[in-house]
Write a structure and sequence with these properties.
Length: 402
């Protein structure tokens, strides 16, 4: 039941006099409802009061504060999904560190983000009916993010529950969307026939890896670590689309478009290229110095939300070490030390994904692929939450022209 307030409580909530509250009603800015018993005692919906409060704040000179909130500033939306802490993200109150330590599978973490609780048994998304046809995909050089964008759009054409408002249907759509995207990615790489019992197994098959227990645990851990990260650019895009009423396939397509930028998902590819250059050199320090001398950006270091270092890099490093010490590059400590001396900061999650791809002996684009697949779970959680919140995301611009 929607929360209701009496006149005095509503006026105090808005920070106005009761007479001003009545004026809002007479001007059509606010609806009032009859109270129980004495009909003269009116009541007011909290959602209507919130809407009027936002409008009042916007006109009261809060533009600069709102503008700063859009640039790594103050929180601007309420969420129950992910909390950024000094030790890493927590999903619905559950630490990512604990999820990785306990080897919780990606599918279970996705369900946690979507529903608020970990399933009692490991979910089997492949048992449910799925689209048999995955389409004809571009040749192998196609970028994985582009393949995923095409696959998600294609999957939406064939899903009869695409526009269903049912929460249960939304969950089925979410599972199908990820499964279809993965099948398409494998098919694009000429690996359509593979294990279909877990997401990590399909990814290993798509990468051409032996699906050892260690490799599957590493892939699952990577997906869990990157599943969500609060209100990042792609998640915000997904929420904007959801607030406008777009379906889940359209919301994920919009998020993938944002993710494709070199400052977001594309940073993984740039990190992989940097690691490849370092691996073929005799000195990581000289590689970094040469790039700085040429005025080139150096991806993979520093993060505005983690001034003391990105804990996700540490988690991913531990995962990579679990594949065997012989798979860890001997030059890693020198690279980290040189970056610190040059003021670049500590390695971040993008570098961690690239390092894990190196340890897995996976293709160069494995880092961005893991990032995109894992983050789809978070995007879908944001879509569901934004739909439940029910308001249109429409920030105002501050005019500064002539």
């Amino acid at each position: 039941m929607e929360a209701l307030m009496g006149a005095s409580e509503a006026a105090e909530y808005l920070g106005v006099q009761v007479g001003t509250l009545y004026a809002y009603v007479s001007r059509g800015l606010l609806d009032s409802l009859p109270g129980t018993g004495d009909g003269r005692r009116r009541r007011y919906r909290k959602s209507d009061l919130d809407r009027l409060k936002r409008r009042s704040d916007a006109h009261a000179g809060h533009g600069p504060a709102a503008a700063s909130a859009l640039d790594w500033g103050a929180p601007s939306l309420d969420t129950e999904l992910t909390n950024i802490t000094n030790t890493g993200p927590t999903y619905r109150g559950v630490s990512v560190q604990d999820l990785v330590r306990d080897a919780v599978r990606f599918e279970s973490v996705a369900e946690l983000l979507w529903t608020g609780s970990l399933p009692a048994e490991e979910p089997d998304w492949f048992r449910a009916p799925h689209h048999a046809h995955v389409g004809t995909w571009p040749p192998a050089p196609a970028w994985p993010v582009d393949v995923l964008r095409v696959a998600v759009t294609h999957a939406g054409f064939e899903d009869g529950e695409r526009f269903s408002p049912s929460p249960d249907a939304e969950l089925r759509v979410a599972r199908r969307l990820i499964v279809h995207a993965l099948r398409a990615l494998a098919a694009q790489r000429g690996r359509s026939a593979g294990p279909e019992d877990a997401i990590a197994g399909v990814i290993a098959h798509a990468f051409g890896l032996t699906a050892s227990d260690a490799a599957l645990r590493a892939i699952d851990a990577a997906l869990v670590v990157v599943a969500d990260h609060e209100l990042n650019a792609s998640a915000f895009t997904a929420r904007v689309a959801a607030s406008a009423g777009a379906d889940m396939y359209a919301c994920v397509s919009a998020a993938l478009a944002t993710f494709s930028g070199p400052k977001h998902g594309g940073a993984c590819d740039r990190c992989a290229a940097l690691l490849s250059e370092v691996a073929s050199s005799t000195s990581p320090r000289s590689v970094l110095a040469a790039r700085m001398q040429r005025g080139e950006s150096l991806p993979g270091f520093g993060h505005p939300l983690y001034p003391d270092g990105d804990p996700r890099f540490h988690l991913l490093t531990l995962v990579a070490e679990g594949l065997g010490s012989e798979r860890m590059p001997a030059w890693l400590d020198e690279l980290k030390g040189a970056a610190a001396e040059m003021g670049l900061g500590s390695p971040n999650c993008d570098m961690g994904l690239a390092l894990l791809g190196h340890a897995l002996r996976a293709p160069p684009d494995s880092a961005v692929t893991l990032f995109a697949i894992g983050r789809i779970a978070g995007w879908l959680a944001h879509v569901r939450e934004q739909r439940a919140q029910g308001f249109l995301l429409r920030p105002r611009a501050r005019y500064v022209g002539r």
